[in-house]
């Protein structure tokens, strides 16, 4: 008999920690009036039962919303004439109870597992299966495992930092050794002969538009070809034709201006050049109009201001000589009547520009 008692005591001791880990099942019952689907909270202790349910939901809300603790809702009804009507009434009653949990407990429809029955009575049950928390031993084991993992990660981090520091030290030593090496004279001469790279004046082709010309309603376009890292060939052209006041006023011209440039400095932003200009014009801004040709040229200079990878602004000014040979005329009854001709010469500014430059390649 003593051996039997000892055996039963041992089984009890083994069963106690196992039972502590089992889930606790909490069930709440809400009564409904026969033939009615309204949820009367103050009736038949429903209010106290709802308060206990909401308190349980508040304690386990995180697990409920995460889906680890589902809320089982079962609706029952036997007061209707048929099974279909009983199931419909049970479903409505279940929805009434779930509405209270949604509005007052902060749950969603996804938290519920709902079943309805045409049997047993006129009530709704809500059941929560809440798993028991871990034991103190399990918590201690988890803390120890976390501490060990943190120590392992810290050791791995220190080892990685030491490895990176060693690699950086090796790279710096290699770089210092490479900088102290003597470059052979042949390589020095080759480097001295290499052209300096620049972003403003690289070899290639660029499209140009003089914004000052465009501001006077005179379309202007040009091309510039960099034949080397310092020399370029370019040509620009303008054309416009305007008349107003019933053709009593006139502004028309075309112009072609080739140019050769030499870029200076380490970055090739400043330049000097030679320009040639030829043009034909027809101006009539008053009673007397002037129509003729213009010829000249001179020296140009300017500065390139980069504004992007492919765009820049070219500020330029040209000084030189211009010769204009033109006729004077008036318009009588729509017919031009010649009033003589003149020739004028000009020494001074012959060109100005704020040109948008787009490097094509």
Helix content: 25-40%
CATH architecture of the largest domain: Beta Barrel
Q: Mind telling me the CATH class of the largest domain?
A: Mainly Beta
Count of individual beta strands: 12
Distance between the termini: 105 Å
Mean pLDDT: 84
Please report the number of helical segments: 7
- How do the helices and strands follow one another from N- to C-terminus? HEHHEHEEHHEHEEEEEEE
Biggest sheet details = 8 strands, antiparallel, barrel
What structural class do helix, strand and pairing data support?
Answer: alpha+beta
Could you tell me the radius of gyration in angstroms? 48 Å
Major sheet: arrangement of strands: 5-6-7-8-9-10-11-12
Relevant terms:
disordered N terminus, 2 domains, eight-stranded antiparallel β-barrel, 42% strand, 12 strands, alpha+beta, 361 residues, 7 helices, four-stranded mixed β-sheet, 34% helix, 60s Ribosomal Protein L30, Chain: A, Porin
Indicate the topology.
Blueprint: H1 2-20, E1 24-31, H2 46-59, H3 61-66, E2 71-76, H4 83-105, E3 112-117, E4 123-130, H5 136-180, H6 185-193, E5 204-210, H7 211-215, E6 220-226, E7 231-244, E8 249-264, E9 270-284, E10 289-306, E11 311-332, E12 335-359
Parallel strand pairs: 2-3
Antiparallel strand pairs: 1-4, 2-4, 5-6, 5-12, 6-7, 7-8, 8-9, 9-10, 10-11, 11-12
Compact description:
Helices cover 34% and strands 42% of the residues.
Report on this model:
This protein is an alpha+beta fold and 361 residues long. It has two domains: 22-130, OmpA-like domain (60s Ribosomal Protein L30, Chain: A); 204-359, Porin (Beta Barrel), CATH 2.40.160.20. It has seven helices and twelve strands. Strands 5-6-7-8-9-10-11-12 form an eight-stranded antiparallel β-barrel. Strands 1-4-2-3 form a four-stranded mixed beta sheet. The longest helix has 45 residues, at 136-180. The protein is elongated and about 120 Å long. 17% of the residues are buried.
